[in-house]
């Protein structure tokens, strides 16, 4: 992404990934400055090459969309999709991209994002969804695939497009690029920006024995538009990116370090999954948002 393009984007401050409980609020919480929306949660999708009886592939969930419309009148929205599966070798879902473009026009997202990963695999006309974001091999073949698709997404949706660094629990042997090198090269070749998920970085560091600070030092922070912060939990010997309640303690110094080094970053988003809402009872969401906003105010 061109650095001047990044600097021209609105500085949104600290926001919240929208959850069903947020959608039901009578008034927006003043602790968040924007909401990040997962558009895929607002429609039914019959899948590529299929349609509903009315001929449409996507059917929007009207009560949820009406509630979102009301929120959009009072707080900025940005889009963070989960359904593109940009790294799938067997498919590239242009209908999904067109639907994201429709939502960008409707809600005026200043930028939109998805995951640097794949979840859909297919062969002989049969497609399966792993229901989890899987990492790509960090090599030139992956870069060629990704760059072609990023260019197409950017052509179809006329605002900056970001990709989020993914969690990986296993690593392919003899990969020619380190993660920071791969992300830098992807941005340079394709023109996409980065959504830097600091908790994903922490998860990978725990499992693969490196320091998060090393990656941040190597990463071209001029490509980072947005940051995600979140928490996780342990599951059968693995530390997972489960968005489990409060922000992980180790993420806060990483956030401070990153914003100090890159005060041009335009947004910080707190993510939590609604199944862990009880861990944020009695104003816990607002406390996380205000702590993040305090760091933002010091550097941005």
Task: Give the SSE layout.
Layout: H1 3-8, E1 13-17, H2 20-23, E2 35-37, E3 43-45, E4 58-60, H3 62-72, E5 77-80, H4 94-107, E6 112-115, E7 118-123, E8 126-134, H5 140-156, E9 161-164, H6 179-190, E10 193-197, H7 198-208, H8 212-218, E11 224-229, E12 233-235, E13 238-240, H9 251-261, E14 267-270, H10 284-299
Parallel strand pairs: 1-2, 1-14, 2-5, 5-6, 6-9, 9-10, 10-11, 11-14
Antiparallel strand pairs: 3-4, 7-8, 12-13
Characterise the protein shown here.
There is one protein chain. The protein is an alpha/beta fold and 300 residues long. The chain has 10 helices and 14 strands. It has helices at 3-8, 20-23, 62-72, 94-107, 140-156, 179-190, 198-208, 212-218, 251-261, 284-299, and strands at 13-17, 35-37, 43-45, 58-60, 77-80, 112-115, 118-123, 126-134, 161-164, 193-197, 224-229, 233-235, 238-240, 267-270. The strands form 4 sheets. The protein has an 8-stranded parallel β-barrel, surrounded by 5 helices. Strands 3-4 form a two-stranded antiparallel ribbon. The protein has a two-stranded antiparallel ribbon with strand order 7-8. Strand 9 (161-164), helix 6 and strand 10 form a beta-alpha-beta unit. Helix 5 (140-156) crosses helix 6 (179-190) and helix 9 runs parallel beside helix 10 (284-299). The longest helix is centred in the middle third of the chain and has 17 residues, at 140-156. The mean pLDDT is 93.
Task: State the gist of this model.
With 300 residues, the chain is α/β, with parallel strands linked by helices. It has 10 helices and 14 strands.
